[in-house]
Design a protein that fits this description.
260 residues; elongated; mainly alpha
């Protein structure tokens, strides 16, 4: 166990140092949610001026409704691209050097997933700060914000696991990018991240109710808008944890299978 922890930390720290060296990527992390909140949040602001529309959005203005969706969207895209490092490490030969060393095989996907989760926590904090500057009020206060960041990091971890599982079987960056784009866009826009299920067509509402992103964004939205609905939050938290553990198992299995 001690060796697994040390090996996982080593892989995670390498990934984080590589991320910190990419200054442009960090700037994009800051400006991307700013653009979404500033442009889309204001373009759609009139949607909640009508009292009937406002009721569909949980009694909140659109910016408050949208903020959890932006956090989940950023976690989705940030996490799903976590597997790119596997392809790059394989292309440049670094993956084979790690495999030739006495490092734990489980530590490689786990360390990469944890690094992605930490990046996701940073991104979520940035979004929360920007949203607060735009006037979004978090009904659960600082403690709720901490839980939002933790849940977002868990979702990053989950999506990184899915991405690593896919990247373990795909050898080229071009194919991986195409697969990732094919998965992320339908997942995002067929969920309740941007619009409530009540205003969707019946066929899309049915898909949204089964979409895993809906189950992730709802607890975050509760913490932002509704407050401490403990039973609802526990269900959402358990769902995210289950999904994270499942993706860790799948990522580990696919990674070990690809190097066998």
């Amino acid at each position: 166990m001690r060796k697994l922890i040390y090996d996982t930390y080593s892989v995670m720290w390498r990934e984080l140092k590589h991320w910190l060296d990419q200054k442009v990527r960090i700037l994009v992390t800051i400006f991307q949610p700013l653009i979404w909140l500033a442009l889309m949040g204001n373009v759609m602001a009139k949607l909640t001026d009508n009292p009937f529309s406002r009721q569909a959005f949980g009694g909140a203005n659109y910016l408050s409704f949208m903020t959890p969706g932006i956090i989940v969207m950023t976690s989705l895209f940030g996490g799903i691209f976590g597997g790119i490092s596997v392809v790059w490490d394989r292309r440049w030969g670094y993956l084979y050097k790690m495999l030739a060393s006495p490092i734990s095989r489980t530590a490689i996907p786990l360390g990469k997933m944890l690094a992605t989760a930490i990046q996701g926590a940073f991104q979520s904090l940035i979004i929360i700060i920007i949203a607060t500057l735009f006037g979004v009020e978090f009904s659960t206060g600082i403690s709720g914000i901490i839980i939002i960041i933790l849940l977002a990091a868990c979702f990053n971890f989950t999506m990184a696991g899915l991405s690593i599982a896919i990247a373990s079987r795909i050898k080229t960056m071009e194919v991986l990018t195409a697969v990732i784009n094919f998965l992320t866009m339908p997942l995002m826009f067929s969920s309740s991240a941007m619009f409530p299920i009540q205003v969707m067509p019946d066929w899309l509402a049915t898909i949204a109710r089964w979409n895993p992103i809906t189950y992730v964004v709802n607890p975050l939205r509760t913490l932002v808008i509704s407050g401490w609905e403990i039973e609802y939050l526990i269900k959402g938290f358990l769902y995210i944890i289950f999904l994270a553990l499942l993706m860790l198992f799948i990522a580990r299995h696919e990674f070990n299978r690809s190097i066998a």
